[in-house]
Amino acid sequence: MSKDNKITDTFEVSPAAGYAGDVIPATAWKILDEQKDAILIDVRTRAEWNYVGVPDLASLDKKPGLVEWQLFPSMQVNPDFVGALSEALADKTTPLLFLCRSGVRSVAAAKAMSAAGYSTCLNVADGFEGPLDAQGKRGATRGWKAAGLPWRQT
């Protein structure tokens, strides 16, 4: 990772080991808006995309990339994840923002793509739905949905 990184130098990014860092959902949106080459990669499962929803980037004239980190229903790590993204994204300086349900699988994805030579891999902290609240439910306090960012059902 370069010390001269337009993303980490311009936006609020929390440092992390093994990838460029963590951003809150609102900062992820700002990066996607202001950096035309930035791409959001939703690493949740097909079931989650279908039943929980996906980020809606239409107002930014973008679509999220949908690549499972773990394959549903076995939840085994997708052996083709790095290869599929590397084939689709030849420019290793492209800013990649990884999103999952709560910010765990997306860290693993950011680390994997950083290890593959991509210079700006960011984790969207708290993911799409955020952590469990006191009632054992997600989505109420943190994450993409709780931040009021656009999303839709598929």
**Outline type:** globular
Give the averaged pLDDT, no decimals: 94
For the record, give the distance between the C-alpha atoms at the N and C termini, rounded to a whole number: 35 Å
Helix count equals 5
- Percent range of helical residues: 25-40%
Structural class: alpha/beta
- Gyration radius (Cα, Å) is 14 Å
Side-by-side strand order of the widest sheet: 1-2-9-8-3-5
Oligomer: single chain
Low-confidence stretches: none
Order of helices and strands: HEEHEHEEEEHEHEE
Beta strand %:
15-25%
β-strand number: 10
Describe the largest sheet: 6 strands, mixed
Written overview of the protein:
The protein has 154 residues and is of the alpha/beta class. Helix content is 27%, strand content 19%.
What is the fold's blueprint, element by element?
Blueprint: H1 6-10, E1 14-16, E2 19-23, H2 25-34, E3 39-42, H3 46-52, E4 54-55, E5 65-66, E6 70-71, E7 76-77, H4 81-88, E8 96-99, H5 105-115, E9 121-124, E10 151-152
Parallel strand pairs: 2-9, 3-5, 3-8, 8-9
Antiparallel strand pairs: 1-2, 4-10, 6-7
Quick summary of this structure?
The protein has 154 residues and is α/β, with parallel strands linked by helices. 27% of the residues lie in helices and 19% in strands.
Keywords:
154 residues; alpha/beta; six-stranded mixed beta sheet; two-stranded antiparallel sheet; 5 helices
